[in-house]
Write a structure and sequence with these properties.
Structural class: mainly alpha
Number of strands: 0
Largest sheet: none
Number of helices: 5
Strand content: under 5%
Order of helices and strands: HHHHH
Radius of gyration: 42 Å
């Protein structure tokens, strides 16, 4: 009796390679291209029809299963579906609450995991530790007022300064910054 493995070794494997004549490129045939395009479009239409029919059959099968179920089975299935929806919405609400409570960005709130608020809070703390810390921007002077950004000069103080400058005739707004001494008759 011969070993089956040795029989496999005796079989010759012939590698066939398609012979293509690459010396002459195939000329473009507009009619053949249009026929191919029409066939592909027809296949796409048939595929859409088949997909629609499959969806219709799936819906009919689901309705048939619903009809076959007894009233109690149907109500049990509906109850399970409602409970799973409630659980998902409750979990999402807890994620949002924990994110707001601990200062996690809203975009990261869906990353929180856990069944209870405490578990989610611990997960949120781990996420907060892994986030980069923001550095305070340094106050660089008059061009970047920093903490003084919201303070505007007092109107009365500015008015006093303007009046004093007007009296001294050094107001750059009167005469374009050029100082004209008062005439002898004006004193």
């Amino acid at each position: 009796m011969e070993d089956p493995k040795s029989e496999m070794l005796d079989v010759e494997v012939q590698a066939t390679s398609p012979e293509v004549d690459e010396t002459q490129p195939e000329a473009f045939d507009k009619e053949r291209a249009m026929d191919t395009i029409r066939k592909l479009r027809e296949e796409a239409k048939q595929a859409k029809k088949a997909a629609a029919e499959l969806d219709r059959y799936k819906k009919a099968e689901e309705e048939r299963k619903q009809a076959e179920m007894s009233e109690t089975d149907r109500l049990k299935a509906e109850l399970e579906r409602a409970q799973s929806e409630l659980k998902a919405k409750t979990a999402r609400t807890m994620q949002i609450e924990v994110a707001a409570k601990l200062g996690i960005p809203a975009a990261l709130s869906d990353r929180l995991h856990g069944e209870t608020l405490e578990e989610m809070e611990e997960d949120a703390k781990v996420i907060l530790e892994s986030l980069p810390k923001q550095k305070a921007a340094p106050n660089t002077g008059a061009t970047n007022p920093g903490d003084k950004a919201g303070t505007e000069p007092d109107f009365e103080a500015e008015h006093k300064r303007w009046k004093a400058a007007q009296k001294a005739q050094t107001n750059p707004f009167l005469g374009g910054g050029v100082y004209y001494p008062p005439k002898l008759g004006d004193l």
